[in-house]
């Protein structure tokens, strides 16, 4: 199967079965936005729950839910207003708006994030002969211009002089500005972390690759506040933990790799990304970065609030260093879909199957009456379904079409087991349980089902 077609097939399955719909579809779509469908909501929630659970295993990780709108000064302090830019270049033949750094990367030229517009233009001019537009293949481009990625809003804009407000470009700043509040609540001391899951917004120049690059997306971020002395060791520990974490999602380790940032932003002490091998190549899934004391120092400078910490034992006063782990919900969902999508043959029939880890499966089990027109079977099946639903709400009722069709449909959405209520159930209470991965069928007592589906 070619790499491109795999992604196309996943996009089509996601829409067909109700995982992900293109945003504003009936109005022709709206670039960089997608809507979660019924199964996507569950899959997304499984991703978030697994992440939160892993964070909550630590007794020194606090949770936070900060607002999307924040005082504009926050983004001045963080450096986003002045420096959160991507280089835009327009194809003069087809008018596509493109990322100049991505075009350069495709021909083996690395653009440094810190480059000025002039430097970028010099670099681009030097490579013009090799660069082709990925949309129309032509080679005519305009000048490279730096575009700020912050999405703005008119919230509270009652006169033209009012300043612009920003929708948050990352959830991290909400954590930094609340670091003191969490500390002062009295339950945490250095080292401790703050974990947050929430929406972020970026004016991406070319949103693409389905859920990979959206304009409205969701992040799961944890900022760990630690003394400068302990920070390097803590960084190594967090790097190890975050890489191993993906086992919980059923991701094969060979499809993950570390990539170190070549050009560190001036404040970062070290920065590594975890990359996943998506159908379009190795790309960033998560950043695990050692940010030094930059963020808290900046907020101290701009707000005038003292961000230092007095160590109760050593009496040392310092601004804590920050280790950041930051991963997108959307990129995780896309990875989980790519990892699990497969096509095979079962009983001589071709099928599409999502081999999701049971923890990720949006539907944990489907319950079928063997025949829809036999009231005894239907009522027994309803009884089993109601019993299961009480302990695990993520079970699905399906009586539409023949059993084979129902299996195919459940395979496509990754349901680990299908439970069929047949004539023998009426006699001895046992049911048929069919495995998604092997097709194997076993008979079990219906009382065993809650344990079997892990509820
Ligand atoms: P990229 O280089 O791919 O643009 P980034 O380095 O700007 O990503 P970060 O600012 O480190 O990304 O954001 C942390 C995480 O948030 C990323 O690792 C990714 O999982 C997710 N993320 C960032 N931008 C987007 C986006 N536009 N759409 C979906 N997820 C995103």
Automatic annotation (TrEMBL):
InterPro entries found in the cross-reference section: aa-tRNA-synt_IIb, aa-tRNA-synth_II, aa-tRNA-synth_II/BPL/LPL, Anticodon-bd, Anticodon-bd_dom_sf, Gly-tRNA_synthase/POLG2, GlyRS-like_core, tRNA-synt_gly
Enzyme class label: ligase
GO function terms (MF aspect): ATP binding; glycine-tRNA ligase activity
Enzyme Commission code(s) on record: 6.1.1.14
Keywords attached to this entry: Aminoacyl-tRNA synthetase, ATP-binding, Ligase, Nucleotide-binding, Protein biosynthesis
Keyword Protein biosynthesis: yes
Gene Ontology cellular-component annotations: cytoplasm
GO biological process, one term: glycyl-tRNA aminoacylation
Leader sequence segment: none
ATP-binding found in the keyword field: yes
Family, as annotated: Belongs to the class-II aminoacyl-tRNA synthetase family.
Protein's UniProt name: glycine--tRNA ligase
Lineage, uppermost ranks: Bacteria, Candidatus Kaiseribacteriota
């Amino acid at each position: 199967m070619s790499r491109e077609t795999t992604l196309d097939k996943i996009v089509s399955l996601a829409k067909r079965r109700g995982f992900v719909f293109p945003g504003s579809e009936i109005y022709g779509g709206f670039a960089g936005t997608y809507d979660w469908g019924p199964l996507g909501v569950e899959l997304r929630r499984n991703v978030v729950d697994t992440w939160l659970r892993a964070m909550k295993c630590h007794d020194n990780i606090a949770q936070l839910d900060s607002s999307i709108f924040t005082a504009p000064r926050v983004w001045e302090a963080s450096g986003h207003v002045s420096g959160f830019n991507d280089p835009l270049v327009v194809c003069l033949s087809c008018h596509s708006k493109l990322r100049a750094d991505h075009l350069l990367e495709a021909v083996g030229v690395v653009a440094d994030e810190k480059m000025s517009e002039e430097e970028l233009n010099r670099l681009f001019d030097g490579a013009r002969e090799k660069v082709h537009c990925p949309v129309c293949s032509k080679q005519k481009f305009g000048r490279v211009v730096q575009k700020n990625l912050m999405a703005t809003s008119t919230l509270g804009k009652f006169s033209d002089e009012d300043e612009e407000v920003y929708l948050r470009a990352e959830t991290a700043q909400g954590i930094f500005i609340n670091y003191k509040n969490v500390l002062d609540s009295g339950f945490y001391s250095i080292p401790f972390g703050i974990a947050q899951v929430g929406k972020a917004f970026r004016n991406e120049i070319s949103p693409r690759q389905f859920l990979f690059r959206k304009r409205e997306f969701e992040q799961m971020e944890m900022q760990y506040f630690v003394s400068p002395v302990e920070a390097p060791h803590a960084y190594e520990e967090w790097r190890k933990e975050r890489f191993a974490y993906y086992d919980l999602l059923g991701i094969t380790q060979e499809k993950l790799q570390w990539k170190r940032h070549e050009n560190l932003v001036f404040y970062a002490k070290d920065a590594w990304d975890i990359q996943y091998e998506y159908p379009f190549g190795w790309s960033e899934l998560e950043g695990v970065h050692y940010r030094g004391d930059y963020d808290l120092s900046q907020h101290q400078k701009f707000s005038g609030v003292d961000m230092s910490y007095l160590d109760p034992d050593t009496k040392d006063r310092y601004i804590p260093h920050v280790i950041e782990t930051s991963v997108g919900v959307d990129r995780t969902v896309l990875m989980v879909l790519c990892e699990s999508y497969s096509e095979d043959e079962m009983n001589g029939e071709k099928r599409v199957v999502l081999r999701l880890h049971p923890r990720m499966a949006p539907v944990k089990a489907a319950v079928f009456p063997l025949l829809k027109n036999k009231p005894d079977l239907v009522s027994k099946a309803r009884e089993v379904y109601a019993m299961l639903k009480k302990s695990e709400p993520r079970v699905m009722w399906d009586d539409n079409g023949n059993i084979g069709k129902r299996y195919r449909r459940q395979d496509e959405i990754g349901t680990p087991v299908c439970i069929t209520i047949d004539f023998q159930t009426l006699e001895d209470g046992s049911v048929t349980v069919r495995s998604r991965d092997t097709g194997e069928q076993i008979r079990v007592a219906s009382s065993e089902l809650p344990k079997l589906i892990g509820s």
